[in-house]
Amino acid sequence: MPNSSKSRTGPTQSSRFSTPAPTDTAQTPRLRSVVETALYINDLERTSRFYAETLQLRRIDGDARFAAFAVGSHHVLLLFVQGSSLEPVPIGHGGIIPPHDAAGPAHIAFGIAANEVTYWRERLDRHSVTIESEINWPRGGRSLFFRDPDGHLLELITPGVWEIY
Fold first, then answer.
1. Mean pLDDT, residues 141-164
2. Which of 48, 118, 139, 143 is deepest in the core (most CB within 10 A)?
């Protein structure tokens, strides 16, 4: 059944790229969220210190090849030393983690409250982190863009950047 509002008014910016939800949602299992995000880095100690001290993330696991940080209550940021995950890793309680790796600067965004932009701008400045760009989005959200020690583009975003955030 066509979306009547779309056929009357034409596609909007967001509807042009939207995928319709399945009609059998009661029977179709759905993905709930992105739980882990991985960045590949050169210096585990230096970069872990940046995420712990500058961004105030809590380290929850790790070894010589990776560090895991809690982001909020349900998300994990994984920092892997580049090249350290090119072989399968046996897990003591069964199974293996398949090989993975990446190169080049990646981008991730961390959500913050709208009233925390000034706090984060000042905190980044105190830690000598340069803000490369600041954007006020049409939906009312704001973004601060900056780099981690390995050159990955990080973004702090407030609600109102995306249709769903």
1. 98
2. 48
